[in-house]
Amino acid sequence: MSRLADYFIVIGYDHDKDRNGSSEGRIIQRFPETDWESCPFTQSIELFCRPIGWTLSAQRQPPEFFVAVLTDIDADRHYLSVLTFSESVAISPTKSDDGDSEEDSAVTIHSLMYSPKCLVLVSRLDYFETFKNCLGIIYTAYVDKLDVQLEALVGNILGCVQVPPPGGPQVRFSIGAGDRQALQPPVSGTVPSSHSATALLFQQLGIQNVLTLFCAALTDHKILFHSQSYSRLTDACQAINILQYPLKYSYVYVPILPAPLYEVLNTPTPFIAGVHSSLADDTADLVDVIVVDLDGGSVHIPECVNLPTLPEPMVSRAKKALTMVMNADLLMADYAFPPPSPKKPPSLEQKDKEIRAIFIRFFAELLTGYRSCLTVIRIHPEPFITFHKANFLGHRGMVDAEFVVRVLEGMGFGTFVAERGNPYRACDIFDEVYANIHDQLTVESADPDKFMEHIKDLAKQLHTNESPNPQPYVQKVPKPTEGAYNRIHQTPFPILDSENVHKILREGIEKQNINKIPLRPHQVRIVPMGTPITALVDRQRIVDNNARRLEVLRNCINFVFDNKISDARIIFPAVLRALKSRVARLALTQELSYHIRSNRAVLEHQQFDLVVKLLNCCLQNDSSMDENGVAAAILPLATTFYRRLCTGIIQFAYTCVQEHAVWQNMQFWEAAFYLDVQKQIQQLYAPHFEENHVGDKRDSFQSSPTHKNSELNVSKNCNGQSVTQEKRSSYRAREMGALEIAAEQLRTWPTLSEEKKAEMISNEESTVYSQAIHYANRMVYMRVPLETQKTMKALSPDWESTSNSNIASSLADSESIDAESGYDEMEICDVGASVIKFVTRFVDKVCNDSRVTQEHIKSLHQMIPGVVAMHIETLEAVNRESKRLPPIQKPKILKPTLLPGEEVVIDGLRVYLLPDGREEGLGGNMGGPTLLPAEGAISLTNYRIIFKGTPCDPLACEQIVIRSFPISTLTKEKLVKLQYTPHIDQLPKEGLQLRACIFQLMKIAFDEEVSPDDVEAFRKLSTKYRSPTTVFMTFAFAGQAVTQPSAMLKPIEKNASLKNFAKKTIMRTARKAGIAKQKAPKRKYVLPTPPMSRRSMSPRSSAGSDSESDRPASEALDDLSIIDEGEFGRSWLSDPKVIEKLMERPGYQDYIRQGFGDPSDGTARGKSTEQFRVSTINSNFSVSKSYPALLVVPANFPDDSIRKFARTHRQYRFPVVTWRHPRTKALLLRASGFHGRGLMGMLKSDPTTGTSTGEISATLHQERYFSCIVSATPNSTKSYKPSYSDSLTSLDSLMLSGVQDILPETPEVVRRSHPATGSLRNINNPKSSFLTLPRRTRTLRNAWPTFSRIGSIREKPRGNSNSATLDHLSPALHQNGGVHDRADLLHTSVQGLKRVALYVLGEKTQMKGIKVESFPKCDFIPVDFFEVRHVKASFKKLMRACVPSAPLTQETGFLKLVEESEWLLQVQNIMQLAGATVDLLDVQGSSVMICLEDGWDCTTQVVSVSQLLLDPYYRTIEGFKCLVEKEWLSFGHRFTHRSNQTVANQASGFAPMFLQFLDVVHQIHHQFPLSFEFNQFFLRFIAYHYVSNRFRTFMMDNEYERVEAGWLMDDRRSSKINHDQSDLDGGFVPRYQQSSQGLSIWDYIEKHHRKSTVFMNFLYSPTDQDSVLRPYSNLSNLRIWDFYLTEDLAHGPAYEIETTNKEIQISEEEKTDSSGQPLLRKMVNGCYDNVSIQLPNVFRQMLLELHKLETDLGHFQQKWKTVWDRLELPTGQRETIHRNFSFNTQIVKSHGRSIHKRSTLEILVKGKMLGEAAKMFSQPHRFEKYTYTTPAYCDYCGQVLWGLLKTGMHCTDCGYNCHEKCLSHVPKNCTKLKLVPDSSNSSANVSRSSDTSTLKSEELPVDTGPTYATYTPTTTNTEQSCLHKGYLYKRGALLKGWKQRWFVLDATKHQLRYYDSEEDTNCKGFIELFDVQSVQPIRNVQGAPKKSDENAFFELKTNRRIYNFLAADSKTAQTWIDRIHSFI
Predict the structure, then answer these.
(1) Is 645 helix (H, G, I), strand (E, B) or coil?
(2) Nearest-5° angle of CA 204, CA 210, CA 215?
(3) Integer Cα distance of 1299 and 1292 in angstroms
(4) Residue partners of 471: CB distance under 8 A and separation at least 6
(5) What CA–CA distance (Å, rounded) separates 452 from 458?
(6) Which residues pair with 1002 in a beta bridge?
(7) Predicted confidence band at 1044 (pLDDT cuts at 50, 70, 90)?
């Protein structure tokens, strides 16, 4: 019996603390006044009585009742029943001292206010309805002035009403106010009562939301409810709590949380809480809390919260049942004649019980078999039972079920096991449901109607549990009269007589002590076991699937123990494969245990090795959780099998199976220990039961308690026999389980004597203690390594090694490789101390839980160090003797074949070459032999990393596997964790992964014989050879001398002495200050943007930058970059022999071929051409360092003018002619992009002239230069004949070709076009097809984003490789840009598409400030192109797709990864730009100028591909050489920088611009195989060697550096290599000869081309090919280059021709038949052999046979080229074939030309479109987060954008809507912002400044200049290059403070730099605008400075981090946002 209520409290408003109508609560009275001993009084109750605060009210409020819940320190819950009513209070109209506040008006206006008063009952029982009645009676007696003493009512409630415990009788009582009440306890106290709470929750939230909350509560997440009703909050929290039955919620539980305690919600622990809806707005700061709106029916799950999914099929079954309960009419909704609805619909309480029944069944089904996994540790005096989680998950197949794992790890399940694990106790509803759920589900599967029937039966049981009395008692409860609370003259609640209350309380307690109600004790019984967990598995299916495997396994083990080792090894690989099965692993342990009982524990050496391999394979295939019990079964085996090393020294198997993570898992040791203790407990009590027979229990291989420390003891007291013996026994008695034994013991326990009880307790404690000793020894065995000098690694299952993506930074200058690479092994120095700590922690845990005496625990602590020390001493002898064993025969290390001059740096280290993600070479699905893994050695030379070995598979071990790559191509080194690999017995835990940029990958594992020092040396030296300090230390110059530059080329050192340096420094300073005058005779040309700084031998480029504009430069660097004509180049100008020798270079010879003249011949200008000349203006590299010495320029344009206007281009790379069309005479020019500040008027001032004079001069010279180009283009003055037979000879042909070239089937379209507007008007006609390009179309909503930033393609949506259909263009513009007339804009945009003489293809930034009228007959077209950073990122993704490090999954297939890399999109983009150039030059006859980026990356790609398509000469071997020499080498593509050839360039990342060009050539070659003299191998050869550093050709960044090196003029063809070994004392200092300077790749190719046909394309037909090629560029016509995919494991890459031939020769010599003759039959494998070598084409084969015949006959051997040229061609037949083209062929050609011209037109129209609409569509949006309450659509991607749980982004200006993920792709086309003033349109700089506050900001002109000096606020040039500047507050890390900095938005460097102050000249840091993803305003910033404007904060998000800034006000902040937006 217990009290109904513990305390009665009266709480009122504290008027003494009143402050403007708000105060605190005050306890006026409490009864009893002293605390109960069993229930102390809870403090701060007044907070929970008024959760939103104690405030006065102007109106009377009706009485309110709710129940709050408090939890005490013992986790017991106390229920606060609160009844609140109002009392009148007279208020004097006085004003507050501190001024007005929000409630002042209420206080002063109303003199009569109402204060709240609360009557509170505190109880530990949850009879809420009874509490409400009792408090209601007290309030009724008070308000209606009943003739009842209030003291008597309170005393009766506290002292006279006693409540029986659950299962007791109904209690009827009265508290003395004429009332009749009844109180019915539930039948079972463990089953909670819900009334109708759960059904109400489902009504409020719905099924899915409640299931979500159910999942969140079970997986320990934070849940917060909010509602306007306190009662609803309590009911909802109670409902979630009840749904978890039989589990109990063990965390913070506060259904009603007061506002002052709101900070509790920031606790890191889980909770279920509720707050009033007035506090709902504050929940936005709770980032990890699930917020539930009960009134609105919504659940908000934060993004950081990841809820697991409920397991199937339980959740589907529950959803189905819940739907049938909550929406019973849903199934009949579609019936044509629905049955009549029931007269009495189910009540809410009935639904509540059915819902609870569904969830109880859910738990019963989820936990089916849990009792089989309970482990009995102690029975007496109190049972201690644990749960074997791994065993349960393994048998149920739920190891990967995150929900189940988290539930089992939660505190609720731990309490569940502690309370319900007892096998002898009172049972409740869940135990009955659990016992029958399996049978019920079986019945329901056969009869679905039984499903709801079972649920309704269970619901009836739940209803009976709450209301066992079938006849309800009619209660009588007085209630106040209606409106009584609103009486005007109501007296305050009286003060109760304390003595009277306590008197009644004492009398009631005494009466209850006399009249005790007899209670019926709870009926305890044995808990039903339910369905065993083993019965849930279909054993028959398992046996059927594994019968063959188990047979092979048993045969192998029998062979091993019969010492038939050879037979065992034959089937050993099959056994290893079989051990991937769980059943096979368990069977292995059982078979081995059978042989132990046969006394076969002592093994021979070979037997021991095979047994150890089997055990290791089992452990490797199992997880560290040991859910299958394999490790627990292996534990006794490993401590039983042993071999004798010598007399007195034996080695157990555990010394060879220690390297597994399971032995480091403490949970495994605890579970295994508890299982063995349970078996010992069973043995302790089993003989007492007759039905248990000795020998019928399963074998556990544990010794009896009398043999605690003996591992080898197998006594008669073992637990029984193994599974293998079960087959031999025809009878098996029933085995009594541990829980049954425990239940029986608990049943008989009360009847035993005290002596017997003490004996049992002692026996159990001794059993646990002995097992603890036993396991302490086992743990020492498994944890101490055999080599005790080695350190133990603290492994975990989720361990991952970190990778160092940049080798140079992590390894180059580090002393410790592991530390620098981030590979932390967590090494522990003292092995013994580590093991002692681990074992001691285990002993403390299990012994304390098992109630072992402290004396025994202390003795264990004393024993463990001694055991460890003795074991370490024993292992030293074992280790010493084990090393004396004869070593296992390993394959011989094969020596790699080396190139001439290649020297071995590190000789072969024995390794395993492991398979990676590529399927080739693995056998299996791909077929062929299993070549990988392979065992061999890895060698490091001064050129390559080479692996050479043999496959581990015995069926393929006769073949040789070679994998190699040049050391210079190594891009990433990574330490990886290794998994079990077939054919390798003991694989190390970690390996090394080496990735090369030639699409090669090596995943290697070092053999145990390789010391860590050797591995460290290998990594360090590979890094040093990968990243030499200069290019002259690469292999290209190995064995060769670096001769000093000749006297003619040697530069004079500027500062040869300290005196000269000081003198020049002083003079330079004086000139700047104006003290000294500039010297006129020795004029220097200042290079404000030098291509690179002055270097002596090696290039120095800016690390990490993709453009030269990113390079930090200072005034000092600029001055050092000045080239003095008098110091350097005077000898060049005066020596014509140098010019003549230069003209012999292949690139310059091409100028002569095209007829541009020869600068060495003074008369050549007039003879060859009158319009152009080869200028020597840059012969001393004074104009541009990155340009060649000789340039083709207009003949009538003087050199001085060139020098002046070159400043208008980046890096001074002004336009030069590179090719001329032989027929149309149109010109192809190349240059860098114009400076960002505009083409005219914003140029950097020349220091020698005034600013305005320099600008005007450069402008005039540039206009004149362009006019010279235009005048030299013939189509500006005359017409010409087209290249093929059509009449489309102008740009109109390009525009109309879509109509007229697709055969005469489209006259309808032409006829429908509007005659007044011309053909371009048809762009708006949906039916017009001339611009319906063959591209992927998009919807109207998606049409505009295709016109994104021109000049830089930023993150284009995948699949949208081309522009949208232009038919949709105008509607899109109308929608997004506000263009009213759809046709006008396009019509206006393409007016400039008339025929002009010069097209300039450039970037979007060139559009600003261009005065088109200054450039007649010129048109400027902005185009899309991919920047270098995009190419870098794409190449990384392509490498991961083509050479994956792990097998690809179905979700990430190969083709999907290639698509995501966007590599083919970039190839397509280059082909389209080149195709447009071809059409303009060839069809239109106009000249084309390519001006992209810095002119050395994308420009070179487009120009090169264009010439290849236009000129057949470049499609020959000699012509391709000229093309590469001219466009890539002479014009300064930065090979050293882009290929990371030196250590200085490592940080910039590998950028394969040249590889991309070769890929484009490969695509063209594939479409036109008859047009190229060279074959595909030629392209792959160059692609391989341009990064191999074997040849000097692709070294250095430009011609200037090659001149400095002195080998540009070297004509020697080949060099003699010194074969002496290099002196590697310092890492890499070879002995150079003094005669040569590296080998050219062209010489090498020429030599091999003369000797063999390796580079020849025999399909080459120069007479039949088209002079101009027009390839298809759609993605369907592009293919993945086989260079990325193929490899040759037989000899390594075939591009090392010498080593390949030698390896093939060696292989053929070894493959002979029995007679010694070479084998005539050969098997070719795709990934092993090179098919083109092994199966040459017929031409090559016939030439080889001819060569062999000439040799055999002794004839003179003719060169193959001579023989090939003498072949007669079948001319007559060829003419016939040539002239009879079919009509289909003509259609195909016409269609190809049409598509090609459409692509050109698309580029032109799109460029002009953006040119005209740039001002309209260049303004950024102002996005803010927005919640959409109605369905909306993203204006970018077109997907739905709606939902209360998801927010989108909404432009506050124009209303543009988009997803947050689409934000970075949205075009900057806001139409409501004012245009940013463009200073290019005005001569004066407009500057505006804000008010003179501390934070100030200035608007500066948009256009920028080319200065790169450090920012100086007083410099005019720098001010012109700054887009914006001002003071801002910046916050560092999250917890750091705000600091004021001076910020400069530099448009030239594309950076946001900051300084300490405005006067500071040293930049403190910068933010790259290229990395900026978004910038947007933010609010509610934590830790903001005081008095800061809330709207002045904005956030800048980059790829690496997020920056927070604070401006002076919101306007200034918005200005900064807009400025930054305009440049991202």
Answers:
(1) strand
(2) 160
(3) 11
(4) none
(5) 10
(6) 994
(7) very low
